[in-house]
Design brief:
The complex is a heterodimer of chains A (306) and B (97). Chain A has 306 residues and is α/β, with parallel strands linked by helices. Chain A has one domain: P-loop containing nucleotide triphosphate hydrolases (Rossmann fold, 3-Layer(aba) Sandwich). In chain A, 54% of the residues lie in helices and 12% in strands. The radius of gyration of chain A is 23 Å and the shape is elongated. Chain B has a domain of 65 residues. The chains are: A alpha/beta (306), B mainly alpha (97). At the A-B interface, helix 3, helix 5, helix 6 and helix 7 of A face helix 1, helix 2 and helix 3 of B.
């Protein structure tokens, strides 16, 4: 059963408008919906005419919204790590760890991890409270990187775990032959080794996240009739297939001529349902406008799979 | 008096034998210990490879393991000392003059 919905696509194709419209209309039909913006350049609040924060804000009956503060998630995580190091290290200034930790917020990959932690947190804390959680995603590059992060990290975790197992096996051999040896001061069994336990913990978290994307998420790619957004949508599909994550549908937005444009998109996405949404030429201003956007087919397909 | 001397002699033999056994055990496990230390060193270098420009796992993942790696980091720093002369270290371990 799919309880999460992700709206992907090139910047400016209308992901925020379509996701807000779908979330708003489903909530009006009686289901409880949470809409979450993962885009660091938030504009979800602007669409609803409300001020959103990292905590849930009501956007109407049965509809709540959150704008994820990625910088706060990174800071919170680094603070926890710093405290953990202080607790565990006898001499924490060995390699000037404090300054290393401070600079980590600018390290490649940290933002993607923050998005993952946020998704995991929302899935864990709010899954039971809502019938559907809708995610408005950042532009393609960051979205693909955070969707790929569990698979890539799992490869590292597998290698590091294998190596750790070999180290522990060797330590056990040394312990049997020479209990006084210096290398057996550390743990020799898997369940006693904190590094091995932490690696197992990371593996189970990442596996869980990958499973969320594969099994519990409805993924729709929003496209416009222009070639650039279509090319990017195809690239998204291709990249996700490599990660064994399947998109569920394509949503054609801002199409002046539905027939010809839809045919072109259907040609490119033969195995996937293509839905058309009819946008408002004057733009969206508030919840009433969101209710007027025609996303009927996409909405029904999504509801059918939740 | 005679019993006391015998007891002391026995004690000396016991301690001497213990030292002989430990020396031989140390010799027997020298290579294995060296291998374990090398593996631990490689483990840290893999994890914190970004320090020296090696491909490494996402920094956030390294951060999760860092709190438990004080001994391994100490080992890596001490290993760096003989990085100039790795062959010498191996020859020393094999007692080749």
């Amino acid at each position: 059963m799919k309880k999460l919905a992700f709206f992907l696509g090139k910047g400016g194709v209308g992901k925020t408008t379509i996701s807000s419209s779908v979330a708003s209309q489903i909530s009006r039909e009686g289901r409880k919906v949470l809409i979450v913006s993962l885009d660091p350049a938030h504009n979800l609040g602007d669409v609803f005419g409300a001020r959103l924060t990292d905590a849930r804000t009501s956007l109407g009956p049965r509809l709540d919204g959150i704008e994820i503060d990625l910088a706060a998630w990174v800071s919170r995580y680094l603070k926890e790590s710093r405290e953990e190091i202080r607790e565990n290290y006898r001499y924490h200034a060995t390699i000037n760890l404090d300054s290393y930790i401070n600079i980590l917020k600018y390290s490649p990959g940290t933002e993607e991890y923050a998005v993952l932690w946020a998704i995991e947190h929302i899935h864990r804390e709010h899954r039971e409270d809502y019938d559907l959680i809708v995610f408005d995603t950042p532009p393609t590059a960051l979205t693909l990187r955070f969707l790929a992060m569990p698979s890539i990290s799992l490869m590292w975790v597998r290698e590091l775990t294998g190596m750790r197992e070999k180290i522990l096996e060797k330590r056990q051999t040394v312990l049997r032959l020479n209990p006084e040896a210096s290398v057996v001061r550390g743990a020799v069994k898997k369940d006693e080794d904190r590094i091995y336990s932490r690696l197992s913990g990371i593996r189970s978290r990442l596996t869980g996240l990958h499973r969320i994307f594969q099994e519990e998420s409805y993924l729709t790619v929003v496209v416009n009739p222009d070639d650039l957004s279509l090319a990017e949508a195809l690239r998204i599909r291709h990249e996700l297939e490599k990660l064994e994550v399947r998109i569920d549908s394509v949503c054609l937005n801002k199409a002046p001529d539905e027939g010809a444009c839809k045919e072109k998109v259907e040609d490119s996405f033969r195995r996937f349902p293509v839905f058309t949404s009819f946008h408002l030429p004057d733009g969206v201003r508030g919840a009433e406008d969101l209710a007027r956007i025609d996303v009927e087919d996409l909405k029904n397909d999504l509801i059918g799979r939740t | 008096m005679r019993e006391g001397v015998l007891h002391k002699a026995w004690d000396f033999v016991r301690k001497f034998w213990k030292v002989v056994v430990q020396v031989n055990r140390d010799k027997a496990t020298d290579m294995l210990e060296f291998e374990v230390k090398e593996m631990e060193n490689i483990f840290v270098i893999l994890l914190l490879g970004s320090f020296i420009g090696l491909p490494s796992p996402p920094a956030a993942m390294a951060m999760e393991l860092l709190p438990f790696m004080e001994d391994e980091i100490g080992l890596m720093v001490s290993r760096a000392d003989f990085a100039q002369d790795p062959l010498g270290a191996v020859m020393g371990m094999l007692h080749v003059d």
